């Protein structure tokens, strides 16, 4: 009875707690429903050699990364050294999904900044991007031997994300496979 | 920071402007070499008004993932345009509204729906307001009943009323009667 005056204070603190938590969340991070689901099929021309196609089936049996990028995307440049470093370690093949880009622009960009990709494929109309639920660039998918999406990184890949999330997950998937 | 696709938008999302631009393109061919996206809104509307109405109606229920407070019908972010084209294509191919919604939810999650489905995660969202309303009304009813049970404050006697009036009027106070 005596502590009754504390009720509004407690209610306020609970509400403030929830709102405070909400401030730390990023509304732009939309969790993908594709995690632990089969990666959508695709068959796309290679950037360097448009007559030859790469499809999802070509990557079966491998753990690999699908990195969505474009030459018009400054955040891709930000994550680029991280990808180059990852490529140098030769942990997994990195396939670039060149999203809604011009072919010449894309090739020029790779010449200028270095090419971390095992191969890049052209998604000129963004159709495959929609199939993968891409809503911004860059995004990176980790796909396992059976073609299942195991992890999605939204936004630029950071050295921390590689060290703490991507590399451990790759190791785990390789062990399991 | 990551760059969202809306940064490639060149025409702001003002439907009237878009429409007039499309009309301009239609009226003066060759003046504007590059039509916005795949034909203007008016062109598409003229081609198949029934389909276009279904596309617009469905698009209003779908959230643009780039401009998150806009539906894909309102947004001119490239992704919203692409998604509208997907909706149009699939409806034209004979799919019904639910199938198109399933297609997008499978790729982008329930987040694309402005009317989220009732499930374990959204249950509180759906029943929360009703719960708050009823608990508030219950609390109020309880309070009112309790107040009705309380004895009414004792009325003032004449002396007290005179004293109160004197205080209000600023007149000299009558002597206070000793309380009985």
Mind explaining what this structure looks like?
The complex is a heterodimer of chains A (177) and B (180). By secondary structure, chain A is α/β, with parallel strands linked by helices. Chain A has a single domain (36-176), classed as Glutaredoxin, CATH 3.40.30.10. In chain A, 38% of the residues lie in helices and 20% in strands. Chain A is built from 5 helices and 8 strands, in the order αβββαβαβαβββα. Chain A has helices at 7-24, 74-89, 103-113, 127-131, 159-176; strands spanning 43-45, 53-55, 64-69, 94-99, 119-123, 136-137, 139-143, 149-154. In chain A, strands 5-4-3-7-8 form a 5-stranded mixed sheet. A two-stranded antiparallel ribbon of chain A has the order 1-2. In chain A, helix 3 (103-113) links the parallel strand 4 (94-99) and strand 5 (119-123). The longest helix of chain A has 18 residues, at 7-24. Chain B has 7 helices and 1 strand. Mean pLDDT of chain B is 78; it is low at 6-14 and 27-37. The longest helix of chain B has 27 residues, at 123-149. Chain B has helices at 15-27, 41-47, 49-59, 78-92, 97-108, 123-149, 158-169; one strand spanning 3-4. Chain B has 180 residues and is mainly alpha-helical. Chain A binds chain B through residues 27-28, 30-34, 40, 72-75, 100, 125-127, 130-133, 135-138, 154-156, and chain B through 1-5, 8, 65-66, 68, 78-79, 82-83, 86, 105-111. Strand 6 (136-137) of chain A pairs antiparallel with strand 1 (3-4) of chain B.
């Amino acid at each position: 009875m005596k502590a009754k005056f504390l009720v509004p204070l407690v209610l306020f603190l609970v509400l403030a707690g929830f709102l405070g938590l909400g401030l730390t969340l990023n509304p732009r991070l939309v969790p993908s429903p594709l995690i632990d689901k089969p990666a959508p099929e695709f068959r796309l021309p290679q950037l360097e050699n448009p007559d030859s196609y790469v499809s999802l089936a070509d990557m079966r049996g491998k753990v690999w990364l699908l990195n969505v990028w474009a030459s018009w995307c400054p955040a891709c440049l930000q994550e680029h050294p991280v990808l180059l470093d990852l490529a140098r370690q030769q942990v997994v093949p990195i396939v670039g999904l060149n999203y809604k880009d011009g072919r010449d622009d894309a090739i020029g960009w790779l010449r200028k900044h270095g090419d971390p990709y095992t191969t890049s494929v052209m998604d000129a109309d963004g159709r495959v991007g929609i199939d993968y639920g891409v809503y911004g660039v860059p995004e990176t998918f980790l796909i396992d031997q059976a073609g299942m999406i195991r992890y999605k990184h939204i936004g630029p890949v950071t050295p921390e994300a590689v060290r703490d999330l991507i590399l451990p997950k790759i190791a785990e998937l390789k062990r399991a496979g | 920071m990551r760059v969202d696709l809306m940064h490639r938008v060149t025409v702001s999302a003002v439907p009237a402007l878009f429409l007039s631009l499309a009309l301009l393109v239609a009226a003066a061919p060759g003046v504007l070499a590059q039509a916005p996206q795949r034909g203007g809104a008016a062109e598409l509307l003229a081609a198949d008004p029934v389909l276009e109405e279904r596309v617009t109606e469905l698009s209003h229920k779908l959230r643009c993932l780039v401009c998150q407070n806009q539906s894909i019908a309102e947004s001119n972010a490239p992704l919203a345009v692409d998604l509208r084209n997907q909706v149009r294509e699939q409806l034209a191919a004979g799919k019904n509204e639910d199938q198109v919604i399933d297609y997008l939810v499978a790729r982008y999650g329930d987040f694309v729906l402005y009317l989220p489905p009732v499930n374990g995660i959204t249950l509180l969202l759906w029943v929360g307001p009703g719960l708050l309303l009823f608990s508030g009304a219950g609390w109020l009813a309880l309070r009112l009943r309790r107040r009705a049970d309380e004895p009414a404050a004792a009325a003032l006697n004449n002396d007290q009323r005179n004293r109160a009036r004197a205080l209000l009027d600023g007149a000299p106070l009558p002597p206070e009667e000793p309380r009985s």
